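It would be a great kindness if you could assist me with a short task in structural biology. I am sending you one protein, given as its amino acid sequence and as whole-number tokens for its backbone shapes. I would ask you to consider whether the tokens describe a fold that such a sequence might reasonably adopt. The full record is reproduced below for your convenience.
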Amino acid sequence: MQNLLDNLNPEQLAAVTLPAQSGLILAGAGSGKTRVLITRIAWLIQTGQVSPGGILAVTFTNKASKEMQTRLSAMLPINTRGMWIGTFHGLCNRLLRAHFRDAGLPQTFQILDSQDQLSAIKRLLKSLNVDDEKYPPRNLMYFINGAKDQGLRAKDVDASDDYSRKLTELYELYDQQCQREGVVDFAELLLRTYELLTRNQPLREHYQARFRHILVDEFQDTNDLQYKWLKLLAGPHNAVFAVGDDDQSIYAFRGANVGNMSAFEREFKVQNLIKLEQNYRSHGHILDAANFLIANNTNRLGKNLRTDAGHGEQVRVFESTSDLQEAQWIVEQVKSLINDGASRSEIALLYRSNAQSRVLEHALFSAGIPYRVYGGQRYFERAEIKHAIAYLQLMDNLHNDSAFLRVVNFPTRGIGAKSLEHLQDAARQYGISLYAAVPYVSGKAGTSLAGFIRLIEGARFEAQNLPLPEMVNVVLQASGLLAHYGLEREGADRIENLEQLVNAATVFINEEGFGHAAPAFLGPQSDAVAGLAIVNADGIEIFDADAALPAIMSPLSAFLSHASLEAGDNQAQVGQDALQLMTVHAAKGLEFDAVFITGLEEGLFPHENSAKEEGGVEEERRLMYVAITRARHRLFMTLSQTRMLHGQTRYNLRSRFFDELPEETLKWLSAKVQQPQWYVHPKAAWAESSLVEANTIAQKIGKADIGWRIGESVAHAKFGEGVIVNIEGSAGNARAQINFGRHGMKLLDLSIAKLDRL
């Protein structure tokens, strides 16, 4: 017992040993929240307050859930495989697999990742002859997911105009299409589970009685439906241990509601709000910068990070004249860090927008510094893997039209667009899947389609009793994918990726306990997964309390779910000895010895869109707080007076966040740049590459009686500080285009506008 509690600080100890009642743990960045969560679970089990099967632990990434299981296994002699530890989507998938009939789903329902969902929506719009310019597929996807995240079906959406009514109609038709094909998207997993537990009282009470202790990580990132789902499972008596940090809530664009933390404190009548403020990651100057910055947000639950590690180095700030100079300065600093013994993988370059990475990448490449950009395709999102997965999906569910369309003519087998039109017409006419509609297509098209059906059924027959890895190998061969990529000039990498799929299947069945000899799927006649299902006193079929995946899913179904859920995971994966480049959003949950936060300019960070949204600037400030607290020892901040973004040169003001940082934590470094004669203020300097052009413009304007110059910094009573980026006209007709940062670009008549020079 004492070993579990050793080396916990007083606040951590209080959290771990909290009585069996709901509590809110306000865990600051680097305060050891993962350790607290895992130790809390171990303490509850070791003290006999709950069995492993009575724990429900919710994480936000697959990586976090795996880490939790691994560390828990090291602390206690228990098998964590059957424990309910996972993401919201993973846990909902597990529950729906066990109760697929009650949920109104086929046993072999499949999960659409974001790419597949978008493809399904495009297919729907095309089948209905809907103008995809008026109703863009991606916008419709956001609309559907947004409604589901609020717990709303199409019939519940408040559609007040014709456009909204059309979107709602398409939402309803999309749901019907998914139900017909036996597929669910990510948002549907949660909504379908919530609806199931809401209407099925015996089932709900069963899980409420089972999960006496519910633990939730990253609580600040929950959306409305996730919070409702937790309240439903908790019922009136269960203890919810919510761990989060309202200062790190940065996913409003995904539906996260930071207000859930305050609502939880109120609705669960939380008597124990414990603040973990001891930071074990960063030095004092870094934490002071974070604390002062976030204090400008309102309606915080409030905390102040502290450290025993000393002040450390001041935060270095560099203001460049151009993004090219900014990138070059960063390269020189990186070289210096590496020469001092820093590992490349422990240095991160963070940016607000992906568009910023181009200049940084060019500078790093030119300097010969290895780097890795997070944001590239994950393994399960690569085209060749998506093709192989689609074949496997058809093996498991013949009526998955998305999978059917992806591979029916890949590799090419003479099935053109016209043939598919005939097939889709037949499917619509009879209300059946594309697979089932093949016999209704005649002629050459029917012959070609029938050949594809024979390929799938032949592979199913050959693989029906094979273990999952061998089945994957059969599919790679029978589909023709390996042969197809073997003919490509640069197909070796794709073939290697496909062969890696066999290894991925092997690792998966080992980790999930399926056993090497278990057949990959149970065949088309199977009506229920053989396993440990039991029936309770109310006649509800419920799987065994400690059952792992083999009890409720076939190896193939489980693997396909795993592939979809992995593709939807948004956590950055840091790897290889290379510099790490990523957006600030992607960096959440990570930490590095040295961090560069780039592009700290008004309109970029905070982003210009934030000024248009309620609470937008506060969300940007939380994002900046996250960026700052990624750094352990050294933190660099950079900004550029001009930046080329989206093909246009931007003239920038310093981010307002600099006004919110304590000067004693900062060490400003100035650039030595020869300025043209017309240059007035360092905030408005032109990029070095544009100096010749700027001088030419200045000469054209000359010393006329306009009285203002391009590049000059000005102040306006209404719009605040700005930079003149262009002047047109002359004398009394002159107008100036001015970038006012927070208020955007304005065109002002110089004879009327009351401007002051800075």
